[in-house]
Design brief:
The chain is mostly beta strands. The chain has a domain at 92-232: 3-Layer(aba) Sandwich (Protein Transport Mog1p, Chain A), CATH 3.40.1000. The chain has 2 helices and 14 strands. It has helices at residues 137-149, 215-222; strands spanning 3-8, 22-27, 33-36, 76-78, 85-90, 97-101, 109-111, 116-119, 125-132, 154-161, 168-177, 184-194, 199-209, 227-229. The chain has an 8-stranded antiparallel sheet, with helices on both faces. The longest helix has 13 residues, at 137-149. The termini are far apart.
Length: 232
């Protein structure tokens, strides 16, 4: 069963997500498109001494024990999806590379500072980020959820478990708006990855104006399983 909450005027203390510049390479049957994002200053991963977010009642769906086995350089721990893909890497030391499937209709790839943005049909957009994260996946997920929903005066969040290759993972879905009758629909997949050099949160965030035709189909395709490769 999913967990659903509606929050109005949410005011929680949230640690700002640490962002770093990303680079993307698209591979498909057509000639590859390559985009390189501008690198933001690298930030150190949070430590276990960082303050945890408040207990706001969000469930720990999708949280599994973090595996800390030995990892080989450039080891691929999750297989790449079939078809067209975009490879996303961060300038954060020790961060993984992510290989995300690109569904039909998502043609352009544009880096915008610390993120890689894909333009989809009917105004649907997808953003892929890799950020330093709290070593505790549940705490990292709560921080992300608060960061995602907090700016909206009215918001809903529907949380589902979404583990990936034994990594902790969640799917978030809902509506963000500042006034009734307008807003955006969003659907995100977040995965917590340990690389041996730190812990990182991979996020694939899809959104569109509320009521956009095809949003459900586009977000479902965009949030499929993706590949994860360890740093060199």
């Amino acid at each position: 069963m999913p967990w659903i909450a509606a929050r109005t005027g949410l005011a929680l203390t949230v640690s700002t997500l640490l962002l770093a510049g990303c680079a993307a390479d698209v591979t498909e049957d057509r000639p590859a498109v390559t985009a390189a994002g501008s690198a933001a200053p690298a930030a150190p991963a949070p430590t276990r001494d960082d303050p945890a977010p408040p207990d706001d009642g969000l469930p720990d769906y999708g949280v599994v024990p973090t595996t800390t086995r030995a990892l080989a350089p450039a080891e691929q721990t999750c297989p790449s999806p079939a078809g067209s893909t975009v490879r996303v890497s961060s300038s954060l030391p020790g961060s993984p590379t992510v290989i995300v499937g690109v569904p039909d209709g998502f043609g352009a790839v544009a880096p915008t500072g610390p993120e890689v943005r894909l333009a989809g049909p009917d105004g649907v957009t997808a953003v892929v980020t890799i950020t330093a994260a709290d070593p505790d996946p549940a705490a990292a997920f709560r921080r992300y959820t608060d960061q995602r929903t907090g700016p909206a005066a009215l918001n809903t969040v529907n949380i589902l478990p979404a583990e990936l290759c034994d990594y902790s993972g969640q799917k978030l879905m809902g509506v963000l708006t500042d006034e009734p009758g307008s807003g955006i629909d969003y659907a995100d997949r977040i995965v917590h990855v340990w690389t041996g050099s730190g812990t990182f949160l991979i996020a694939v965030a899809v959104q569109a104006p509320s009521g956009t035709p095809g949003f459900d189909a586009a977000s479902a395709a965009m949030l499929g399983d993706f590949g994860v490769q360890m740093p060199d």
